[in-house]
Each structure stands twice: as C-alpha cells, then as structure tokens.
Design goal:
This protein is of the alpha+beta class and 306 residues long. Helix content is 32%, strand content 23%. The chain has 2 domains: 9-181, Formiminotransferase-cyclodeaminase, Chain B, domain 1 (2-Layer Sandwich), CATH 3.30.990; 186-302, Formiminotransferase, C-terminal subdomain (Alpha-Beta Plaits). The protein contains 9 helices and 11 strands. Helix 6 crosses helix 7.
Length: 306
C-alpha cells in the first residue's frame, strides 16, 4: 500500500530577542522539543530579533508555537527591549506557509486556531494578518505594527484595532502578536559601506511598493550599529515578479549616486532555490555563509535524517 504524504507546513516566527545566546538557545529548544524540524535560526543584535524556521505537520507546528510563546514570555520582557526593527510582541509575528501537500486554506485554519489558543492560554492578544486576516485593513503587517509596542495601550482600545482574539489590553510584558498565513517570501538585506542611515532610508523609500517602487517589495533603512553600517532591510513578497537581482541593482545604483558602495548582501532565514540568481556570491555580493540558506536543501537534509 502506498502511504499518502502528510501535508507539510512551514512556520517562521520572529521573536524579539537577538542578543542573548542563552535565551535564543532556550527558545530553539522549546521549538525542537515539539516534534518539528527546526531548519534555521537567524539572529541580529541591532534588530534585536531572531527568526526561526521550522516545518512539520499542523498539530506539531501548533504545539511548537505554543511552547515558543511559553518560553518567550518566561525569558523576554518587552518593556526593556530595544532594537531597530519594529515590534509589538515578544513573539512578534507567526506566519504559516504552505509547502508540500498543504494549501493556503490549511494554513489559514491553522493560524486562526493557534491564535485562539495563544490568546486563551497566555493572555496575549492576537491580530490575524495576510491571508488569515478577517478585516481588509489588517492584511498588511506594517499597519498592525504601526506605533510599536509603546503605542499599543491606547491604540488597542480603538474599535478598529481591537484584537481578533483576546482582550483589548496588551500583555504587560509580552505585548501582542500577529499570526497569519502567507506564501513564501524572501527576507533580504543589502548592507552599505557607510554609517549614514539617511542614505539607506532614502533608498528604501524609493524601492518599496508603498512609495511607488517595485511590486512586492517592503523596505526600510536602518543602522546596524554593532557593525557601523547602514542597511536596506527588505521583504520580497513576490520574488518572481521582483527578483533579488532587481532590487540589488536598484540599491547599488542609487547608493552609487550618493557616493556609497554596496558592502554585501544577506539573507534572513531560508529562501526557495529558484529565488537565487546564478552565482549569487558574485552577482549579489552575497555573504558566503548565506549561499547555504536554501529551503529545499535544508528540508531534504532534515527529512532524510528522520
């Protein structure tokens, strides 16, 4: 008898901790102990954020997310958190992404059931976003995050910003969370050979879709202070329409107009193999270590070791 493949879903939580190795490891252990395959973790101290990538069946994924929340609440107090990346919670965002055999509908259902459990068990209010959103104004994560954790206490009281699950009051130390369903995206940063953050900010405004730039590009300019470099930090939500090479060239061209060179580019988390151009280390000035951040390869290694 041929056994049917179990639908496989990817989960990519972003957690508001990128500086304490012991906490980052504790959160990774909470995930791994749930029966999922932890494929990657990417941390940055200036963003003060860690992105975990893991895959599994729906039940195991939900268990992993709940254990991640328990560990994050125990180890992180958002009142004392700072970083260049916008954030609203200790577990800031939890996207579910359909992979082999899974559908977007599967991920929407998983996001909504997980959100209900998070709000019920941990008293962390949850907003549903992207494909799981129940209101059009909440599809875009940037709209939910506007004002950050500090603005939540008043903003959450507004009728249009009451959470989908939980009370209209942030958790005192954990804030709120955004849980949703979305297609695969590419988290991609280009680092500039300057500490002039205003250069990165101008470039980000030019290339992002919301300012009339490239389709499917979200971008912001930040200072990576532990390295002394300005960074154009991006999410490519449709890398087939707007490729990594396209945005790299645009960033490099505009940086050159300001007398600045591109230092290197980097990947956060994992990305599909077809998102990378040929010879990305040369074509994109990609860090050598990041050439290994291919989802299919990590997945093959993980499932092959099962």
């Amino acid at each position: 008898m041929i056994q049917e493949a179990v639908p496989l879903v990817e989960c990519v939580p972003n957690v508001s901790e990128g500086r304490r190795p012991d906490v980052i490891e504790a959160l990774a252990s909470a995930i791994s102990d749930s029966g999922v395959h932890l494929l990657d973790r990417s941390s940055d101290p200036s963003h003060n954020r860690t992105v975990y990538t893991f895959v599994g069946e729906a039940e195991a994924l939900q268990r992993a997310v709940l254990q991640l929340f328990a560990s994050a609440i125990a180890h992180i107090d958002l009142r004392y958190h700072d970083g260049v990346h916008p954030r609203i919670g200790v577990v800031d965002v939890v996207p579910f992404v359909p992979l082999d055999g899974a559908t977007m509908s599967d991920c929407i259902a998983l996001a909504r059931s997980t959100a209900a459990l998070v709000a019920g068990q941990y008293k962390v209010p949850v907003y549903l976003y992207e494909e799981a959103a129940t209101r059009p104004g909440r599809r875009n994560l940037a709209d939910i995050r506007r004002g950050g954790f500090e603005a939540l206490a008043s903003r959450i009281q507004l009728d249009e910003w009451r959470p989908d699950f939980g009370t209209a009051e942030p958790h005192p130390t954990a804030g709120v969370s955004a849980i949703g369903a979305r297609p695969v995206l590419v988290a991609y940063n280009v680092n500039l050979a300057t500490d002039r953050v205003e250069v990165a900010q101008r470039i980000a405004r030019t290339i992002r879709a919301s300012s009339g730039g490239f389709d499917g590009v979200k971008a912001m300019g930040v200072l990576i202070d532990h390295r002394g470099v300005a960074q154009v930090s991006m999410n490519l939500t449709d890398y087939r329409r707007t490729s990594m090479a396209t945005v790299f060239d645009a960033v490099a061209r505009q940086a050159a107009a300001e007398g600045v060179e591109v230092l290197e580019s980097e990947i956060v988390g994992l990305l599909p193999a077809d998102a990378l151009p040929e010879n990305p280390i040369v074509r994109l000035k990609l860090r050598h270590a990041d050439a290994d951040r291919v989802l299919e390869e990590r997945l093959d290694r993980a499932l092959g070791s099962k």
